[in-house]
Write a structure and sequence with these properties.
The chain is built from 24 helices and 22 strands. Helix 1 runs antiparallel to helix 2, helix 16 crosses helix 17 and helix 17 runs parallel beside helix 22. The structure holds 2-(butylsulfanyl)adenosine.
C-alpha cells in the first residue's frame, strides 16, 4: 500500500470505528462483533505505525491514555459555568414558572426535562468538528485542562459528524459520570488491591478525571452526556431540544431520558416519575433539570451571578439524615487494612435504620474532621454502604478530641504502619485474628472456594478457639470438633464438614482468588490459572515471566511474586495440597493436546466468553492470535462471525463452529 492509499484507508477506518463506537457505547446497538471491531482498530494501528506522521489526536487509537501530567493547566471559561437554582417541591416549580411569567409577561413556555446526573461538569471545545480541549468546571470561572483524560472516554467523539462538524467553534457542556455497575466494579478492584474505595460514583468520576496518569483514567469506564451549548460560531440552534437533536446527529451522547414538554404540568409528572424510578437508574441522579426550551427566551431571561433564570433543578428527596457519632471504631480487613467506621445513634434513612457508617480511611477522617460526639450528616445511596458526608458545626466540637489513627492494631496490638504513598494504615501481623477471620470468610465466599455454612459466627469461633490459624487448618477440622462449636448442631456440623471437603475440587482459579493475593481478583485468577496450569508452575514463575502474560502486567505480577516469596504463604499452599486441595485447573497440567496449534477466534459463543475460550486454548497448549494468516490452524467462528471467517475461507484455513471446537477440545 503506498502513502496515498494508506491515507485513504486510515480515513476510512477512523470513520468506521467512530460509527461503531457510537453504536456500541452510546446507542447500545452494535452492528459488528467485538472481534470485528478489534480487527478494524488493529488495522488502523498497523497503518499508523507504518506512517507515524499520519497519527492525529482525533484518531480512535489515541484514546488509550498514557500521558502523565505534572499538573493541570488552568482554563478560563468563556462564560462562567453556573450552578442551578433548586426546587424541592411542586410548589417551587410553579413559583419558578410564575417568575418566568413576571420576567416575560404574556409568553408561554415549553420545557425540556433532563435527569440531573451526579457527576462532574465539563466543557468541551470543538473546532471545525475536532475535539481541541476539555476542561473541568472548577470554581465555575477557572477550570482545569483535562483533555488527555477526557479523550479516554469511549462514548465521547473525538471528531463530530454531520453539520455540527462544520462549525468554526462549538463549546458544549455536560457531565462526566460513572455508571453504578462500573463504580461497584472499580471499588471491588480497589479493595482487592488493598486500596481505599471511593465513597460514591461522583467521587470516583471526579477522581478519575483528575488523574495525573491518563492510562489509569482509560481503565475507569467513565461515561459522558452533553446537555448544553455554551458557544457556537455560527449559532444554528433555535431551541434547546433542537440543539440536543443536533448533538445526537453529531455523535455527541445525550441522555436517553431527556424529554420535551409543552407545559409545566407535563414536566412535573416527569419529575415525579423519574424520582420513583430513581433506584433503578443505571447511574446516580439527584434530581431533574428543567430548562426553558426556546433559546430566545433563555437569552431574554439571562442569569444571576449564580444561576440561569431559565433553568431549575428539581431535587429528589434526600437520602441523607442528621444523627450523632457515638464512637469511632477501627476495623481490620483481610489484607490488614485498618478502616475507621462510625458507630451512630440509629437513624432512619429511606426506609432503613442506619447505625454504622464507613469513614473510609484516616485521610477522610482528617478531611471531615469528625470527632466522637459530633452531629453529622449521613447518606445512604442505593446499595452503597452508608457514609458520613459532613460534620454539622456546633461549638462543642472544638472541645472534643480529634480522632487519631491508632499506631497499633486494635485487635492484635501489633505495630500498624502506613506504606509510603498509600492512604491506608495496615496491621503487619498476618496472623492477626481479625485478618485470619476476614481471610477465611473470603476464602469460603461464593466466588472463591464456595464453602456453604462457613459464616461469620462459625469463623469467629474457629479463630477465637484457636482451631484455625490459617486457611489450611480448615481442612483438618472434624465433625466432632465442629459440633462442639456454639449453636452448631450435629447435622449442621456434618453439612459444614462436607462443604469444606467438596471445596477441595474447585480448581486452581478459585483457589488463587480465595488466597486473597493482592491485585488478584476473579478475572486475574482465571488468567493466571489458564496460563500456569498448575500451582507448581506458578510458584516457580518469576515476576518478569508473570508480567508477560496478557492481562497481568507488572503490578499484578509483583503482587503475586511477593505473595509467593513469603515462606508462610508457601507453607499454607503446601499444606492445602497435602490436605487434598486441587492445585490444577480443569485440565491436568502437562496435558497439552493443542501444543503448536494456532487459533483465531471470531464472533460470539454461547457456552463461554471469548476470553474464556482463549484461556482454554492456552491452557491446552495452543496459541491465539488476532489476525488470520496462512499459519493459522483453525478459525473458530461463533455467532455473527465477520471478516475473519471470510479470510479463513480465502486462505484455505480450517474453520470450526462452536460445537466442533468443543468436540476438539474434549468439552462437548
Ligand atoms: S445545566 C447553566 N443540565 O448540575 C446550566 N446541569 O447544579 C447549568 N448537571 O454544574 C448546567 N445534569 O454539573 C445541567 N442535565 C443537566 C445536568 C446538570 C447534571 C450538573 C452540572 C451543574 C450542576 C448544577
Amino acid at each position: 500500500m503506498d502513502r496515498p492509499q494508506a491515507e485513504a484507508r486510515i480515513r476510512e477506518l477512523r470513520q468506521q470505528i467512530q460509527h461503531h463506537d457510537f453504536r456500541y457505547y452510546v446507542e447500545n446497538r452494535p452492528e459488528i462483533t467485538d472481534a470485528q471491531h478489534d480487527a478494524l482498530v488493529q488495522e488502523l494501528r498497523g497503518l499508523e505505525a507504518a506512517y507515524p506522521d499520519l497519527v492525529t489526536p482525533d484518531s480512535p487509537t489515541q484514546r488509550v491514555g498514557g500521558v502523565v501530567a505534572e499538573g493541570f493547566a488552568p482554563v478560563e471559561h468563556r462564560t462562567p459555568m453556573l450552578s442551578l437554582g433548586n426546587a424541592t417541591s411542586v410548589e417551587d416549580l410553579r413559583e419558578f414558572e410564575a417568575r418566568l411569567g413576571r420576567a416575560l409577561p404574556g409568553e408561554r413556555f415549553e420545557y425540556v426535562a433532563e435527569p440531573k446526573v451526579d457527576g462532574l461538569g465539563v466543557a468541551l471545545l470543538y473546532e471545525r468538528g475536532v475535539l481541541i480541549r476539555g476542561a473541568t468546571r472548577g470554581d465555575g470561572r477557572l477550570g482545569e485542562d483535562v483533555t488527555h483524560n477526557l479523550r479516554t472516554i469511549r462514548s465521547l467523539p473525538l471528531r463530530l459528524r454531520g453539520p455540527l462538524a462544520d462549525l468554526a467553534v462549538l463549546e458544549v457542556r455536560g457531565e462526566v459520570f460513572m455508571r453504578k455497575d462500573a463504580f461497584q466494579r472499580l471499588n471491588r478492584e480497589l479493595e482487592e488491591a488493598g486500596e481505599a474505595p471511593f465513597a460514591n460514583p461522583r467521587n470516583a468520576a471526579a477522581g478519575s478525571v483528575r488523574q495525573k496518569d491518563s492510562g489509569i483514567t482509560a481503565k475507569r469506564r467513565l461515561d459522558i452526556i452533553l446537555y448544553q451549548v455554551s458557544h457556537a460560531e455560527p449559532n444554528p440552534f433555535t431551541t434547546h431540544w433542537d440543539a440536543l437533536q443536533h448533538f445526537l446527529e453529531a455523535a455527541l451522547p445525550v441522555n436517553a431520558r431527556v424529554r420535551h414538554y409543552p407545559t409545566l404540568d407535563d414536566a412535573i409528572a416527569y419529575c415525579q416519575a423519574l424520582e420513583a424510578e430513581r433506584e433503578g437508574l443505571e447511574y446516580e441522579a439527584d434530581g431533574v433539570v428543567l430548562k426553558v426550551n426556546a433559546l430566545v427566551q433563555q437569552r431574554l431571561l439571562g442569569s444571576t451571578t449564580h444561576h440561569p433564570r431559565w433553568a431549575i433543578a428539581y431535587k429528589f428527596r434526600a437520602r441523607q439524615a442528621r444523627t450523632r457519632i457515638k464512637r469511632i471504631l477501627v476495623n481490620v480487613g483481610r489484607t490488614g487494612a485498618l478502616t475507621p467506621a462510625a458507630e451512630l445513634e440509629p437513624v432512619e434513612i429511606a426506609g432503613a435504620t442506619i447505625s454504622r457508617a464507613t469513614l473510609h480511611n484516616a485521610d477522610e477522617v482528617a478531611r471531615l474532621d469528625v470527632r466522637e460526639g459530633d452531629p453529622v450528616l449521613v447518606e445512604r445511596a442505593g446499595d452503597v454502604i452508608p457514609h458520613v458526608i459532613e460534620v454539622v458545626p456546633e461549638p462543642e466540637h472544638a472541645a472534643r478530641a480529634p480522632f487519631m489513627m491508632p499506631d497499633r492494631c486494635p485487635v492484635c496490638d501489633s505495630q500498624a504502619h502506613r506504606p509510603e504513598g498509600e492512604v491506608v494504615w495496615r496491621c503487619a501481623n498476618s496472623a492477626c485474628p481479625a485478618q485470619v477471620k476476614e481471610r477465611l470468610l473470603h476464602f469460603g465466599s461464593r466466588r472463591a472456594m464456595d464453602i456453604e455454612h462457613l459464616g461469620e459466627a462459625v469463623v469467629n469461633q474457629l479463630v477465637e478457639k484457636n482451631l484455625v490459624k490459617d486457611l489450611a487448618d480448615l481442612y483438618h477440622l472434624t465433625v466432632p470438633t465442629l459440633a462442639d462449636l456454639d449453636r452448631l448442631a450435629e447435622k449442621s456440623a456434618t453439612n459444614l464438614y462436607n462443604a469444606i471437603q467438596q471445596s477441595k475440587a474447585r480448581g486452581l482459579a478459585r483457589l488463587l482468588f480465595g488466597l486473597g493475593i493482592r491485585y488478584v481478583g476473579e478475572h486475574v485468577a482465571e488468567i493466571l490459572a489458564a496460563h500456569a496450569g498448575s500451582m507448581e508452575r506458578l510458584l516457580r514463575a518469576s515476576a518478569e515471566e508473570l508480567a508477560e502474560i496478557h492481562g497481568v502486567g507488572p503490578r499484578i505480577a509483583a503482587g503475586v511474586a511477593r505473595f509467593f516469596a513469603q515462606e508462610e504463604n508457601v507453607r499454607v499452599v503446601e499444606r492445602l495440597k497435602a490436605a487434598g486441595v486441587k492445585m490444577e485447573g480443569a485440565v491436568a497440567a502437562g496435558l497439552k493436546p493443542l501444543a503448536g496449534k494456532t487459533f483465531v477466534l471470531t464472533g460470539t459463543f454461547s457456552s463461554m466468553s471469548r476470553d474464556g475460550a482463549r484461556d482454554f486454548i492456552i491452557r491446552l497448549g495452543g496459541r491465539v492470535t488476532s489476525a488470520v494468516s496462512k499459519k493459522t490452524d483453525y478459525v473458530v467462528a461463533g455467532k455473527e462471525a465477520g471478516s475473519k471467517l471470510e479470510d479463513a475461507r480465502r486462505l484455505g484455513v480450517a474453520t470450526l463452529d462452536e460445537a466442533a471446537f468443543l468436540a476438539l477440545v474434549g468439552k462437548a
